[in-house]
Amino acid sequence: MNNKKEVNAAILIIGNEILSGRTKDLNTSTISSWLNKIGIRVLEVRVIPDIENKIVETLKELKKKYNYVFTSGGIGPTHDDITAESVSKAFDLKYEIHKEAYKILEKYYGKENFNEGRQKMVWMPSNAELILNPASGAPGFNVENVFCLPGVPSILESMLPGLKNKLVGGKPILSKTISLRTIESDIAKSLKEVQDNNKDVDIGSYPFFRKGKIGVSIVLRSEDQTKIDMCNSQILTFVNKKKIEIVERD
User: Fold this and answer.
1) What's the rounded Cα separation, in Å, for the pair 212 and 86?
2) Domains of the chain with CATH codes
């Protein structure tokens, strides 16, 4: 797509509540969409339980494999919030009180309300850099290429803009979606021909069911708008030839 090396990332969702189905994972799409805009491509997502050795071993693997790793969950005030201590062990760092985080939270809650549970949120790996939290006070943190964010979706989303100066991305990853009233088998051959002729564009097809009718959304992704437009034109050619109804396009 260009001569610049692709910048990639992994997302690690930590929490028994996600695996049990009790809580929906909204953070993967939020983080991925935001990273796409600054040219960082998410290549892997994992969901793991609140088990220390599982977190430590997974982090050791991912931080070597990808430019950036983003974790979500496990940095709150309760007993099962063990992400910070696990990150310390993954990097062989001391787990200690972060002085700046202590000041931030003491001011946020007030000395009289800054209890033991809330003080747990200031324990981090030594030399961790803070990720400020404009929504609820408690900061996240990063160590080298690992960025640790809270599990609450609205809070996590509010913290992402503060990461921009900490990350080096590539070209923004652009996308275009065409939704058709058809089934995948009817367009599979034609779509493969378009993909074969446009190697620099990622083409995905995703069935949907809307208003009692089935359809397929075709998503085009590339760093180059010209190549997306060219690919889009080729798709519209076979769509018109087959007289397929276009439901929506962006």
Assistant:
1) 47
2) 7-166 (3.40.980.10), 174-249 (3.30.70.600)
pTM given for the model: 0.82
pLDDT band per the 50, 70, 90 thresholds, residue 19: very high
Query: Interior CA angle at 184 toward 180 and 189, to 5°?
Result: 105
Alpha-carbon span 97 to 89, nearest angstrom: 15
CB 133 within 8 A of CB 158: yes
**Rounded CA separation 134/151 (Å):** 15
Q: Amino acid identity, residue 175?
A: S
Q: Residue 4 — pLDDT band, cuts 50, 70, 90?
A: low
| Mean of the per-residue pLDDT values of the chain | 93
User: Which residue, among 197, 44, 70, has the nearest Cα to 141 in the 3D structure?
Assistant: 70
How many alpha carbons fall within 13 Å on the CB side of residue 43?
13
- Average pLDDT on 94-108 reads 95
pLDDT band at 2 (very low <50, low <70, confident <90, very high): very low
Could you tell me the sign of the dihedral formed by the alpha carbons of 11, 16, 19, 24, in that order? Answer: negative
Beta-carbon contacts of residue 109 (< 8 Å; ≥ 6 apart): 118, 137
| 97's tokens | 């009180």
Residue/partner pairs of 160-164 with CB below 8 Å, 24 or more apart: 160/30, 160/31, 160/34, 162/131, 162/132, 162/134, 163/131, 164/38
Query: 162-213, pLDDT tens digit by residue?
Result: 998 899 888 888 899 999 999 999 999 999 999 999 999 999 999 998 878 8
CA-to-CA dists, residue 142 to 72, 121, 128, 205, angstroms: 12, 14, 6, 36
